[in-house]
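Look over both lines:
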Amino acid sequence: MNSIILCEGSSDFVLLQYYMRTVYGWTDARTQNIRLDSIKRSRTLKKDENLLTIGGCGGCSKIIPAFEKILQRNSISAVGEAFDKVVIITDRDEVGTEEEFIKKINTSVQKYQLMMKDDIKNNTWLSCEYQNGHGKKQIMELLLLVIPFEDTGAMETFLLNAIANDSAYDAEIIRKGNQFVEEVDKERRYLTKRRYITKSKFDVYFSIRTAAEQFVERQNILKRVPWEQYSQIQEEFQKLKDLT
């Protein structure tokens, strides 16, 4: 089986690789990483006879164009060349993020003439029927994960919340760190965008938690934390086990 996960940026890209390796036993595939237009970076993993590509699209707005490239690829592919399962993972930045993404996916699915058996729902696999390059009917399974499921926030917010839910001590450190970030740059000379504030909150917490290790990059932090131990992450990534 050939699957692909489409995510937003570098944090998601690194976290998903770590999680799929650690929790579900995927390893680096001895094959060239698949290159697709609209995907900024990719990594191909293998488990038994299954292949999984994790694609970082370089931002929320780039996910749907990447998804359409996959649909286009499937529509002209031969048997065994298409992606059998496609997962789209994005942040719930705004209250209407989930609804907006569902509309965009529906538009893309209609554009490439896929037949869906049910409506698209968050955290629910959906079967889509299409014809490949040889005119044969094929099934593609689609999964949308807008994270977190209940609250708004970026991936970094989701990860901090997962830690806070499992530790009252760490929750207090996170709360005080968040308060500091919100108040320290009152004139917004440096934290000029909301995503800068979000990432700063993440970095402030880990500068305390991992001070002795002197992490240089956020990616190194993501690789060293046992995310699979946090119950909220286990719950919201549970459907990824279906990729084998």
Summary: The helical segments are 10-24, 63-75, 97-111, 155-166, 168-184, 194-209, 218-224, 231-236. Residues 44 and 92 are 26 Å apart (CA to CA).
